[in-house]
Amino acid sequence: MRAPVGVHLPVDEQIDRIYADSYLAECNNAMARMYGLDSAEQIVGAPLAELLPRSDPANIEYLRAFIDGGYRISDAESHELGRDGRSRYFLNNMVGIVRDGLLIRAWGSQRDITGRKQIDSALRASEQRYRALVTASSSLVWTSDPEGRYVEPQTSWASYTGQPWADHRGFGWIDALHPDDREAVRRAWQRRVREPGSVHEDHARLWSVEKNGYRHVFGRVVPLLEGDGTVREWIGTVTDVEERWISEDRLRRAERMETVGRLAGGIAHEANNQMSVVLGSAQFVLRRQDIPEEVREDVEHIQRAAERTAGITQQLLAFSRRQVLQPQVLDLNVLLQRSEPILRRTLGERSRLVVRQASGLGRVKADPGQLEQVLLNLVLNARDAMPDGGTVTIETSNVTLTPEYAAAKPVATIVPGAHLLLTVSDTGVGMNRETVGRAFEPFFTTKAVGEGTGLGLATVYGIVKQSGGYVWLYSEPGQGTAFKIYLPAVGGMPAERGRPDAMPVALAGEVVLIVEDEPSVRRVIGRVLRDQGYFVLEAPHGRDALAIAGDPATRIDLIIADVVMPELGGRELAARLGAVRPGVPVLFTSGYTGHDVVERGLIERDWPFLAKPVAPDVLARKVRELLDQ
To answer: How far apart are CA 327 and CA 476, in angstroms?
Structure first.
C-alpha cells in the first residue's frame, strides 16, 4: 500500500482508502498467466481497481467480508479483469498485516475458478430452461428412481389431479387413474422397469379436478442411462388428449355407421326388387274369385309377410339415410297431438304417457310421416324397457345450441343455432355404457330372439339425421332412458294435410313400354298395367327399348325404365329415348331410393321416380298422373 489504512475508520471509508492506495507489489508468474500475461513483471505495480473492479458489487462485498473478518478471509470468491479484458473468477485466501492500528500490507493466494463458474452458470441456465419448459408445457412432467418406486411429479400434476404430494410415493400416483386402467398401467410400468427400452407410450384415463371427471391422457416415458447402460432415472410426460380422443371416436363412429349404412342400403335394394314380385303376385292371386278359401288364407299370410319385409327394408333405407322424404313445415305440438292416441294404445294400460308441450314453439321442416315413425319407435322402445309398467314423458321445447355446447357433443359436425328439442324419456331398466354405444346400430338388440328386429332405434337415427337433426341418448342402468332429438328451427307456417288422391281410371288405347332387366319384376309391372287397361310393351334392357322406340309405327305414351341395368340405363337411356321419342314421359324405378340414384348422378332430382317395391295402386296412380300432364 502506498499509504496505510486506519482500522478505526468506518468500513466504507476503509474500502475507499484501500482502492485509492493499494497496488500489486509482487506476484509469481502463475498469477500473471491468470490475467492473460506472460510474466510477473507485466502485472506488478497494477492498481487494485484494475485487478478487482469496483464496479462489481461482489468485489465490494469481498473487501467488506475481509475487513469484518479481522482482515483475513478464506475461500472467498472475487471477480477480476485481466489485462486482456476478460472476466475471471478466483477463489481467494488473504491475510492483512496490521500494526499500530494501521493496515499496511496484505498477503494472499488465489486459484482460478473461471471454468467451474462457467460450468455452474451453464447448469443454472439449463435448469432454468428446463423449469421454464415444464411450466410452459401443457403436459404434466414427472421423474422417478430407476426402480420406479417413487414418482416425483411437478407441481402441475398435483394441481391437475388434486392428489396430495405425499401420496405419490411408491405406486400411489396410480390412484389418480381410472379404476379400470390402474392394473394395466401398473403391470406395464413394472414391465418397462424390468426391460428398459428407448421410449414407451401408453393411454389411460386420469382424474381432473377442474373437469370433475376422468380425462383421456397420453403418457410418454424415456429412461436416462448411465455409461454402462443402466437406468439412472425415468422422465415422463402426461398429455391431456380428451378432445382428440373425442374427435377420433366421432370419426370411428361415423365411419362405422357409414359402412353399415352402405350395407343396409345394398340389402334393401336387392330385397325391394324381390318384394315387388312377391307383393304383386300375391295381389294378383287375391283378386281371383275362384281360389279356395284355404289358398286365399295362405296367400294373405304371404302378402302380410312380404309387407313386413318391405317395412324392414324401408327402415334399413331410413337408417342409411337414403329414404325419400317429403319434408314440410311442421308444428311439433300439432304432430304430437295427432299421434297421441296411437301412442297411448301402443304403450298399453300398465304405463302412463305424459305429454308436455311448450308454448310459442317454433317450426321444423321434416317429413310428418317419418317423425310419427320416430315417436312410435321410441315409445315402443320405452314400453319394452318397462315390463312392469312405468311412465313415458314426451316434451317439446325451444333451445339454442351454442358453439361451446355443440363442440362438447360426441357426434359429427353440429350447426349451432335455434333448434326444437323433442325429448322422449322413460322410467325403465336403462342401459349400460356398452349398450348405449351400440343402441343405434341396425340389428343390434338386447331382446330375445324373435322379439325384435333391432331396427327401431336405427330407423330413428336415420330419419333424424336425414332431417338435418341430431339425436343423443342418455341412460344409466336402473335409471331409465332419455332420447333428445334436436331439429333445426325454420320459419313459415305448417302445411295443411290433404286428402289422398282417388284411384285413377284407366283410359283405353294408351301404350306403356316397360324396360326392366329382372323378368319377374317386369312381369308384375306389366300385369298391373294390363289390369288397368293399358297396352304393354316389354324390353329386357335399354338397347331393346331403343329398337322398339325407334319404330315410328309403334305407339308409345309412357316409358317405365329401371335405373340400374347391365346395358344402357339411367341418364344415357333417357337421353337416347328423348331423341327418338321427344315428349314421351319416362318414369324411372329402382330398388335404390331416389336420393341414392340422384347422388350417383344416374338421374336428375326432378325426374319422375318410384322406389321398389311399388304397390299396384301407387304405380297406377303415378302412371295416370304422368299421362294426364
So the answer is: 34
